[in-house]
Write a structure and sequence with these properties.
Distance between the termini of chain A: 14 Å
CATH architecture of chain A: 3-Layer(aba) Sandwich
Number of helices of chain A: 6
Radius of gyration of chain A: 16 Å
CATH class of chain A: Alpha Beta
CATH superfamily of chain A: Flavodoxin domain
Order of helices and strands of chain A: EHEHEEHHEHEEH
Largest interface: A-B, 31 and 31 residues
Shape of chain A: globular
Oligomer: homotetramer
Number of domains of chain A: 1
Largest sheet of chain A: 7 strands, mixed
Amino acid sequence: MTKVAIVYHSGYGHTAKLAEAIAEGVTRGGAEVSLLKADDLTKPDEGPWDVLQEADAIIFGSPTYMGTATAVFQQFAEASSKIWFNQLWKDKLAAGFTISASASGDKAETLSRLATLASQHSMLWITPAVAKGYHAKGDDYDSAENRNGFYLGVGAFAPSDSAPEEFPHEPELETGRKLGERVAKAATRWMKGA
Amino acid sequence: MTKVAIVYHSGYGHTAKLAEAIAEGVTRGGAEVSLLKADDLTKPDEGPWDVLQEADAIIFGSPTYMGTATAVFQQFAEASSKIWFNQLWKDKLAAGFTISASASGDKAETLSRLATLASQHSMLWITPAVAKGYHAKGDDYDSAENRNGFYLGVGAFAPSDSAPEEFPHEPELETGRKLGERVAKAATRWMKGA
Amino acid sequence: MTKVAIVYHSGYGHTAKLAEAIAEGVTRGGAEVSLLKADDLTKPDEGPWDVLQEADAIIFGSPTYMGTATAVFQQFAEASSKIWFNQLWKDKLAAGFTISASASGDKAETLSRLATLASQHSMLWITPAVAKGYHAKGDDYDSAENRNGFYLGVGAFAPSDSAPEEFPHEPELETGRKLGERVAKAATRWMKGA
Amino acid sequence: MTKVAIVYHSGYGHTAKLAEAIAEGVTRGGAEVSLLKADDLTKPDEGPWDVLQEADAIIFGSPTYMGTATAVFQQFAEASSKIWFNQLWKDKLAAGFTISASASGDKAETLSRLATLASQHSMLWITPAVAKGYHAKGDDYDSAENRNGFYLGVGAFAPSDSAPEEFPHEPELETGRKLGERVAKAATRWMKGA
């Protein structure tokens, strides 16, 4: 069975909620999913690195803090440098997601940073393919999937004073599920073609 | 009197409308403003290049088409390569703005591209300083300035089926005016300090 | 047979030379290759768009001029907007390459721009996977593959006064061949798994 | 007297060495300089934050680890979020520098990340203005200033197995000094014009 791992950091629970939605999407796409906290993977020799090694695809997630992925996520990225040196994740699939307290909020920088990490690991980058979002006058900003119009990954919104039960709201969680489903199916296809 | 030039490309008129708002802001900030079309500056030896050379600050603007500044804007950027070679814009101030038909829509890439252009020209990059935008539950997305939360420059929204009379809407035009005002005052201060 | 198309713009011939090396790599990887000039694809209704539609993978290439892909390449990108609107390139593979007259020269911005374009088209991004380049004291800068250390795509160097017969030099051409070979094999695997 | 602070993280000493060269440049430019370690500024309520508040300009520095600024640097950035909320660094000058073990090595991503941080803080971004680097056949890669061709900030090279006594080598240290000198003079001019 295809294996997809999600590694994320969540400061206040919103990113965890989006990670869970993405995990539901992975299941919907027919793959086995592991949800891992970046907090448990900040050292090269501790934590569930074997789960990542066995995965066919890894989805990276982090809030955007002061313009990029968090320090905890970066500790994880740095802890992966031996893996990078030996290119042990080469040819795995990768994807990414982030959240901030505004529509843009420099989330694009975070998604770019996640794609860069994947490219250093020689992984293949999978995009959400939820194309248009809110872009015409008749569209409803509150109900549109991918309402903020991110393409490299999922970029969701959570107000700075909201609880994870409130945000990301349902359409953005569904955008996350679609990313999970797409990664699961792409990984299955990719493994089947090997 | 401090001189600020705005060079922009506009496909359907929305970016022109934002450019005009920024020009109003420059006037409000006490500087003289010139509005130039990138379309007239696509060749190194034709067009009002002297206006740019005499300006204390240049504000770059373009819609985001397929993920970055337009081909017309890029023709202008390429036509500036001799100026770059001789570093004739060194120490001028610079700033940027863009529009697309979604909240993000990869506008961050365009703003980054504009800042890169300015950095190649050894200019100083001025940010809008309209800080928070729509970021808490009580905020109103439709009336917030900088509602989409861009920091490197102004990132506005115009639905794909809207007329320039409709979008960018007033709060984003005011965000533009604030950028113009800020650049005018910064350029005056910068020239005064010389 | 797997089909790979390369769409590139070349100002002085260096990018064309790298495109040809990548094409050799595609052949080496067992796929059929088409070399297309962006110059012939600047309008939505003219040029060999059907070749792109039939391709399993598209490799984008452009020199870096003033910090990003060229105006001609951007004309091609803009001409692809109807295809984007209908998501006709969804699930194709994509990759990218660029050249400038310095080691960095803001080529990273161009590669990021190419990956953004691919992500808007919901394509899968394939990286060169030529990992380390010139990074230790004993390494030789002149003979190292990927000597400048780009990961998202191939970033090659051609001095501003060099002829295409001289630059990119052989190790960077071989880096290009490896990208072509990798894309060919990945596309074959991807199509086989469908 | 104009005050310039340099905040940096250094893993193995190479970035510290570049920071010291930049500090020399600040002195050469006639300003007072403070060298601060990001390690001492990872919490909002501990460390020499007052030095930063009193500075007219802040220069940010970090190695590039796995594609962006380090976790320690990011801890500092996150610790500055209250300052951001109150926009207490608004109108200060900013600049940046980074090092990695290859010519590019995704340093552009780090410099972009530093400029984004500055733009969130509504600071003005100062570029090194060491324009061309190694770009023509007659140029010598080993002796050229800005040899790798970065424009947004200083991007230096240190082989993975080198000692800080060896790398960055002298021309890149001089590039750093020029950045420091330029920031010092720009800050003096900016304060004088107030």
